[in-house]
Amino acid sequence: MLEKVADTLAARQVEQAVLQLDSLSTLPAVAARFFPKLLQPQFSPSDLADIVESDPALTARILSIAGQQGLFPDSETPSVRRALDKIAAHLVRDAILSVRVFGTSDAETGPDNYRALPRKQLALHLLAVACCAKSIAEIVSPQVDPQLAYSAGLLHDIGKLALDQVMPKSFARIVVEAKSKNASACATEQKQLGLDHTILGKRLAQRWHLPNQITLAIWLHHSNTASIAQSMPQAKIAQVVQLADLIARQCGIGQSGSYDTPDLPDATAKSLGISNEQMKKIRQNLTEQVSQKSKLLGLDSPTVAAAYGDAVHTTVSQLAQNNTKLSLENRRLQIHSGHFDFIKEFLTSIDSATAPLDAAEKFAVRWQKFYQTGKVCLYLTPPADSEDIEAVIVENLSQSRVVYVKATPDSAVIPEKVRSSFAILDANEYADWLFEQLDVEFDPNHTKLVPILYQGNAIGAIVFELRYPGDAELFEENFKATTSLAGVVLGLASASSDRQRFAEQFVQLIGSPKAVQETPAPEQKPAVTETGLLEALSEMAAGAAHELNNPLSVISGRAQLLADSETDAEKKRILKQIRQNAGDMAGIVDDLMNFAKPTQPRPASTGINQILEEAIELTTRRRDVERIEVQTEIAADAKNAFVDSAQIASAIANIFSNSLESYPGELGLIKVTAGPDESGDFLKLQIADTGCGMDEETLRKATQPFFSAKPAGRKRGMGLALAQRIIQSNGGSLDITSQPGKGTAVTILLPCK
Q1: Do residue 587 and residue 610 come from a single domain?
Q2: Closest by alpha carbon to 29, among 306, 297, 302?
């Protein structure tokens, strides 16, 4: 009993060892034949069909891939050639290269190299069975497909091949014992291992997803196939392979590892309908058929080792060259991928309100990150009337800061070579004036300078340490593309910033009565002066609207048309920015018009609750939030306001937005109280927050158009200015009190009649 358990355990161990194989091994002579074909520039799997379908290792590998990918439906007979047509060329190449190759000393025999069963002899036996099975199938067709029978005959002993590959010493002992006792391989395997090559072959075939009919032939070719085929018609292919195996052994072609007498089973031949004359003809043709296959595979070559060595050397050399090309191509693809990531990340980090220096800083940081450079300095050319240059320094780990340097009379801020065209220059020849003013040490031998061009002129330059000198040529195309993009963005941002500054200066100039009339007459009231100024502003804004809106509409419309027909994502982004900037310019004109000449109000008696509800709803829409927290306290004796409710709601919404922006982070609480004023003629409304508050200087300018305490790149700052103008045009007034760190209170008086 213990002996039987031990035999069972040993059989399982053998089976597990065999099932670890992912492919069989081929002979060096075969490898010497297919290596050169794999290296052809226009490699086609069909070029290998003759070799693959004549070698058991290659056939099993290709049919395994086809089975795993489900390339053959039940209605289609699988074959090696059809599989090669269906499998992608690169997968075929990889599959064939992954097949193991026996060492030349293991595959050949000679005076000093004895093997119990030389692999070449086993290969000849498999070819003989394959050719014989195909001839038999051609006679019994269509019951058995000839090409499928050929593959089944070639693979019928894969269990032996696997044993020889995994357990060569044990397999050698089996062959020696079978030969000494004139026994079959199956009987000897059962005795020594507890299972035979038919079971192992079946397990492998199932694991590798080989066609079902081939699996049956592998499993049943040493069984009573005539009886089995009567109840299992699909097993007829096993009859064909069994008969082919016996004929091949009788003809003495190759060696199978079985040494019992190969008697032909008359029942099998009879059930297949094979006559004696047909058997004789099959035997006569078999030797020549196998000889042709053997020649194709190079099995008879007297210099197998030399041919294989040359093929391996050539293949390795070619693969090394291909690997170098692939590495370079991969590097280029990585660069291009990083280039697109650079563009995407930079463009998504800015918007139409981004200030030029902020955009320059974002660009410089990403330049260092994506091109893996050392320190970076990006500077913008100064205005014509200034020597002050704004620059951004990016040191290690993307640490950036803004610095200011001065242009020197004896040095060109932008080298002559790159003022209107792109080139990569050695910075140590052109940027001494810059390095002398920076507190950062650049490596002069590895620092480059490239221009940032906008509309054919350099508006700045980027200076950077290039860690790998060879990257200058490799990156040149991408450097040119990204700096061109930066030029467009920085150029548009500078133009937008200039428009903002001019508008603010203009409004501040005309908004001060002293600027127009330093010595007003004593009897002249400020309101009269302000009214005159506003009328002048209204006329000027109307003229600006007439002169600017038409060309802005053309710019915006043409940009939209170009964007609709453009397929390049980068260009579409640029065209979108053009439209946004044109829209911003039109918005400035609209804001001036609304401030200088608000729409004539249509007053009506309206309850304050209704006005506040409209203001809250309008604020949530403008800020794109679900709700804001407003706490209201309305006095019982509060009267209705006699105003244009829509205009007042819009003005209060501006005040709400201003209050919300005073809170850092999340939206804060707004408190609203309403009741009659002392005279009883006005409704007094107070809107208070506990945000950051304003200092005296900010408070004094809070209602000036285009003023904002935010940094450069802010919105236009018209919220409180428009609110005050709307309330005044409705006969009311607005007053603001504030303390830094404590919050702001806006008091509004609205007429009740």
Answers
A1: no
A2: 297
Mean pLDDT of 444-473: 86
Among 282, 301, 320, residue at a domain's last position = 301
Give pTM, 2 decimals.
0.49
Question: The tokens of 367 are what?
Answer: 């330049």
Distance CA 157, CA 126 (A): 7
Q: Determine the Cα–Cα distance for residues 101 and 107; give it in Å rounded to an integer.
A: 9
Instruction: Determine the average pLDDT of the residues in 653-682.
Output: 85
For 324-358, the DSSP string reads: HHHHHHHHHHHHHHHHHHHHHHHHHT--TT--HHH
Angle between helices 158-166 and 168-180 (to 10 degrees): 120
For the record, the structure tokens of 668 come out as 């804060």
- Clarify whether residues 572 and 636 are in a common domain: no
Q: Does one domain contain both 289 and 248?
A: yes
Tens digit of pLDDT for each residue in 295-312? 988 887 776 555 555 555
Q: Please state, in angstroms and rounded to a whole number, the distance separating the CA atoms of residues 260 and 177.
A: 12
Tell me: do 541 and 584 sit in the same domain: yes
212: nearest Cα among 151, 160, 271: 151
According to the model, what pLDDT value does residue 690 have? 85
For residues 208-236, average pLDDT: 89
User: Can you spell out the DSSP letters for 222-257?
Assistant: TS-HHHHHHH-GGGHHHHHHHHHHHHHHHHT-S--S
Whether residues 123 and 189 share a domain: the answer is yes
Region 667-696: mean pLDDT is 87
Domains contained in the chain, number = 4
Residues 6+ apart with CB under 8 A from 297: 27, 29, 30, 33, 51, 54, 55, 123
| Backbone φ, ψ for residue 670 (5° rounding) | -120, 130
Domain that holds residue 624: 604-751
439 and 554 co-located in one domain: no
CA distance 129 to 147: 13
